[in-house]
Amino acid sequence: MHRFHFNHLKLRSKLIFIYIVCVCIPIILTNIVFYNVTTNNIKKQKTVDAQQAMIQLKNELGVVIDDAASIAYLYSIDKLLENHLETDYASYDQYIESLASIKNIFIRSDKEYKTVSSAHIMTDNPTILASGNIINLEDSMRETDWYRSIKDHNNAYPNLYVTPSSISVIQQIADKRYRKYEHIIKIDLNMEYVNQLLTLSSFEGDVYFTDQNNEVRYSNAPAFLANMEPMLKENISKPQQAITFEQMYENNRYLGGWSLYGVLDEAKVLSEVRHSGQFIVWLAAINFFIPTFIILMMSRSIHTRIKHLLKHMKKVKGKNFEPVPYVQERDEIGELAVEFNRMIERIENLINDVYLADIQKKELEIRQRQAQLHALHSQINPHFLFNALETIRMRSLMKGEAETAKTIQNMAKIFRKSISWKRSFVTIREEIELIESFLEIQKYRFANKLQYQITVEEALKELLIPKMTFLPFVENASIHGVENSPGIGLITIQIAREHEQIVFVITDNGMGMSAEKLDELHHYFTEDDSMGESVGMKNVYIRLKICYGDEFTYKIESEHGHGTRIILRLPIKEVVQ
Known about the structure:
There is one protein chain. By secondary structure, the chain is an alpha+beta fold. The protein is about 50% helix and about 20% strand. The chain contains 16 helices and 17 strands. The protein has helices spanning about 10-75, 80-85, 90-100, 105-110, 145-150, 190-200, 220-225, 265-270, 270-315, 330-380, 385-400, 400-420, 430-445, 470-480, 515-525, 535-550, and strands spanning about 115-125, 135, 160-165, 165-170, 185-190, 205-210, 215-220, 230, 240-250, 260-265, 425, 450-455, 465, 490-500, 500-510, 555-560, 565-570. Helix 1 (about 10-75) packs antiparallel against helix 9 (about 270-315), helix 11 (about 385-400) runs antiparallel to helix 12 (about 400-420) and helix 13 packs parallel to helix 14 (about 470-480). The longest helix has about 70 residues, at about 10-75.
């Protein structure tokens, strides 16, 4: 399995990859992070602003209620007002005179006309006539909720009574258990002013005014105004993502446990951010699609032209030297196409001018060498009359000359193989059989003056070599090496394998050669075109060079008077005949 490497990617894929990784993804991530950070910051700021708005609204509403409560408290502790309410008046004039004496008490409540809708003192004293701020406490009033709310209430401080449509501060004047008559102060807040406070508040959500039992008594929420009925705070209908605020009234006798509960819709708070988010999305889309389109167009231009150039390069492999159509581009690809056209034009000229001529020359040389090989084979393989040799051998046997008959038989083998071998390659085993026949003839000639020893690795015997590769060297060793030697001549032949080569070593203890003779022989093999005297060995040299080239090597070691050693190295390779 090939490992992934960027060099395996197409150029177009690399450009798109660079754009996506280095441009597109950073832009998207930057926009997302920027949007989230902006959203969180705005949400925090809006939350802080809403919290401050709730505190301000709490304080403002508390001031309005405190003003009403302070008026009620002042009425409750005023002794003149209490005496006026407790007195039994015998005549109308007496009552008017007493009322005139307390007229200044109601100045403050009259000044608070913005926050106070009405300030009434209700009494069940039958001698008091209803007029201005003092009215009669009738039995029907005792059946109302606001009256029942103060029935068991401590009259030491005011009581807050809130309905969906009104907010009132109610307080009893003294304890009716210790007075002849019951007197109640009821101050109603100006609800237009209260609603104006809620409307002008910077708090953008719904505000709920809850009592000590977490029951909503008053609110500006549309759902609450539609029903105009108290509800528990837990039952308030909230948006899906709501932010809630609660401001408790503390350290206040009549407002203790009351609270302002605000519900803010996060969607409304972040509506501007969401709108900006759509703008960011459109901007990111523009930043994505326009560069992508440009990158694709440019990469397509590069990719198409490179493929076109590559197509023409592949045609060169099939010897189709078609040039790239004329291009006018001046970028690197255009310059590459121009240079490619020049290159194939030059290659085509070289092929026509040099390569074809060289092929013709090589063909002539091959034919010349083939003719030379045929001539050499003709020199090595003379045709003899086998029938004549066989007749001589039979007559020698009839006369009891077995040694002569054996020699003639070996000669017949040599001549028969030289004529019958139509193949260019033979096995080493067949070559050794031919050498043994030749050496047996030489032993007959030299009258046992010649001895020989042949060693061949068994695994090499079936390998193919050019025919008559070793015989000329054996012949040279027996004739030129041993024949002129005064003693018994010994020829040693070794054929072995060394790495991927066949190593043939022939050694004789004959007369040897001088260094000058060795140089002359080497020059004769490699540079002299004439055949000369050692035609057999040169024949082998030429044939082996043709068959194996530089993979064939030879080495001759000799010293005058101390014999000769010849080493041939042939590569082991499969031969196709």
